[in-house]
UniProtKB/TrEMBL annotation, chain B:
Membrane topology reported for the UniProt record: Peripheral membrane protein
Keywords linked to the UniProt accession: ATP synthesis, Cell membrane, CF(1), Hydrogen ion transport, Ion transport, Membrane, Transport
Matching NCBIfam families: ATP_synt_epsi, PRK13443.1
Species of provenance: Ruegeria atlantica
A family per Pfam: ATP-synt_DE_N
Subcellular location: Cell membrane; Endomembrane system
GO CC, alphabetical: endomembrane system; plasma membrane; proton-transporting ATP synthase complex
Quaternary assembly: F-type ATPases have 2 components, CF(1) - the catalytic core - and CF(0) - the membrane proton channel. CF(1) has five subunits: alpha(3), beta(3), gamma(1), delta(1), epsilon(1). CF(0) has three main subunits: a, b and c.
Recorded family membership: Belongs to the ATPase epsilon chain family.
Protein name: ATP synthase epsilon chain
Function (record text): Produces ATP from ADP in the presence of a proton gradient across the membrane.
Matches recorded under InterPro entries: ATP_synth_F1_dsu/esu, ATP_synth_F1_dsu/esu_N, ATPsynth_dsu/esu_N
Gene this protein is translated from: atpC
Amino acid sequence: MPNLKDLKNRIESVKSTRKITKAMQMVAAAKLRRAQESAEASRPYAERFNAVMAGLAASVGGSDSAPKLLRGTGSDDVHLLVVMTAERGLCGGFNSSIAKLARVKAEELRLKGKTVKVLTVGKKGRDALKRDLGDLFVGHIDLSEVKRLGYTNAQDIAKDVLSRFDGGEFDVATIFYSKFVNVVTQIPTAQQVIPASFEDTEGDDSDAVFDYEPSEEAILADLLPKGVATAIFSALLENGASEQGARMSAMDNATRNAGEMIDKLTIQYNRSRQAVITNELIEIISGAEAL
Amino acid sequence: MANTMQFDLVSPERSLASLSATAVQLPGADGDMTAMPDHAPTITTLRPGILKVEAPEGSSEYLVTGGFAQINGDGLSVLAEKAIPVAEVTRSHLDDLVAEARASHEAAKAGDDQTIVDDAAKLLADMEALGTHMSL
């Protein structure tokens, strides 16, 4: 049986853990709101962009002159997996579920005889995949210095990916991130960005015939790289919101567990205290009787 | 006849303006153009420049650094990579943009693709012209 002092120390340490997790939960809640706001603010751009691209891609996509980014390189032997995770841990299953999805996909591609390359964004994903896919890593992008995610961060990542594409390093690129649904639900998602596919989410003005200035091909060639950056940017923002949401619920759980543990330990502490008192009384009484 | 149209200016990070305008002057890649209500549906890419919006409530100006515009009969959406209201533009903003353009020009010169060098040179010239235009 642990003695009273040990129990007391234990209770104190769990109490301070609870304080920390509680604070982390509140910080995550505040950050979540900001992350959600920026995710929402970016939505109009992404939607319009995709609507325009969908129209353009539909009219140019079939022809042989279509840019490589849309048409693909003609083969799909080399796959680049861009795994985007958080820079920090303590956010429940957020990082590991993205890593798991990437791992499953990589395994699947390898069984089909494809070559897989992995580009990681965010430290945690890199750590999680190092053991299984470490030899496939081609690069890593560190965002730990970034205080507030901006479009320029997405542009940097896109630039890296595009220069690899231009260099013929891969044929197909897929990004892995977590889609934010609500605080308790985040869906790990894989999205192919090269060759690009666009969903027309608006779809109402597709009947309008547009004049293009300069030519359709020129616009498409200009916009496709931006499409990659836009896709990466929305993925980053979704990821940001998901991370904070996951952390918030994980820390909420942790706080509750700590509370339960404190209750349990307190009961145990009181019982042992009583037992000690009873023991002492028995000793005194039996001592007195012996006289 | 409608004499205003819906005008939206959005950047990846946020939506900057959404109002009804009577005319919008755009720095199109092939030359400036002005869009008014019932303009023929057009999609054009933009070069860095000044975008002028004329609305019944008064006109406003934005500095945009590329992107594209989609013109419908009844509306106009500008998707700019970066857009700043002209009143908020300072010399240092512009210096940053010029420095960026210059850096990409230098980088392009190191390569051997002439079209990229030309594009970068054009971008640099556009940026510098922008500074002169705004007399900063």
